[in-house]
């Protein structure tokens, strides 16, 4: 069972997914705290409704000051729109999900809708998502899991986003379970 902190910046759709799967017993995790970069994020409101401590912090130092009060196995980025620098003891314990098949459409500037617009503009017939460990550079940490989805019939970035998010809802919890089974260090040794 992974004790996790969820870092978010927006609506908390991924938090919803985690909560539902924990309730169903299919995600082996316990949310200890939810932190947002935005004080008025809908994700914080949802976290409070679910009964999780929900706090606002700007920057890695402020976030880490909050995290120091919790026993954690993983920090899970869920639509967190800043480059995060974790405390030393959690440096190899930060998971992120990216809405493309890394190494395609990733790195600085490629987040959220920007990714789907680039995928559409390139004329891709598949897209997908990648769960990876985050390090000091955008989208370069070890990959835990990837999955793809057919987008050949999609005519807009919104349609691609919907298909990819549906996939993310399956892949992110599955990746957390894989880390729970195998441990984080195994993925860092592959580098």
Describe this structure in words.
- The chain has 2 domains: 1-91, 3-Layer(aba) Sandwich (Rossmann fold), CATH 3.40.50; 96-191, Formyl transferase, N-terminal domain (Rossmann fold, 3-Layer(aba) Sandwich), CATH 3.40.50.170.
- The mean pLDDT is 91.
- It has helices at residues 13-24, 42-50, 60-67, 112-122, 157-182, 185-189; strands spanning 2-8, 29-36, 54-56, 74-77, 94-98, 126-133, 143-150.
- The chain has 6 helices and 7 strands, in the order βαβαβαββαββαα.
- It is α/β, with parallel strands linked by helices and 191 residues long.
Spell the H/E element sequence.
EHEHEHEEHEEHH
Q: How many alpha or pi helices?
A: 6
CATH third-tier fold name of the largest domain: Rossmann fold
First-to-last CA distance: 25 Å
Q: What is the CATH class name of the largest domain?
A: Alpha Beta
Summarize the structure.
This protein has 6 helices and 7 strands; from the N terminus they run βαβαβαββαββαα. It is α/β, with parallel strands linked by helices and 191 residues long. The chain has a 7-stranded mixed β-sheet with strand order 3-2-1-4-5-6-7, sandwiched between helices.
């Amino acid at each position: 069972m992974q004790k996790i902190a969820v870092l978010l910046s927006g609506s908390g759709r991924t938090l919803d997914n985690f909560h539902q799967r924990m309730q169903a017993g299919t995600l082996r995790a316990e949310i200890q705290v939810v932190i947002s970069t935005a004080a008025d994020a809908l994700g914080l409101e949802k976290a409070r409704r679910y009964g999780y401590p929900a706090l606002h912090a700007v920057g890695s130092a402020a976030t880490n000051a909050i995290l120091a009060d919790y026993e954690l196995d993983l920090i899970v980025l869920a639509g967190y729109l800043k480059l995060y620098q974790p405390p030393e003891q959690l440096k190899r314990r930060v998971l992120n999900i990216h809405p493309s098949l890394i190494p395609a459409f990733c790195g600085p500037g490629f987040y959220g809708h920007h990714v789907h617009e680039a995928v559409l503009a390139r004329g891709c017939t598949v897209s997908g998502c990648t769960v990876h460990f985050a390090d000091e550079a955008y989208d370069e940490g070890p990959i835990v899991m990837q999955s793809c989805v057919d987008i050949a019939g999609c005519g807009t970035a919104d349609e691609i986003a919907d298909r990819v998010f549906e996939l993310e809802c399956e892949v992110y919890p599955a990746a957390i379970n894989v880390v729970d089974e195998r441990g984080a260090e195994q993925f860092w040794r592959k580098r």
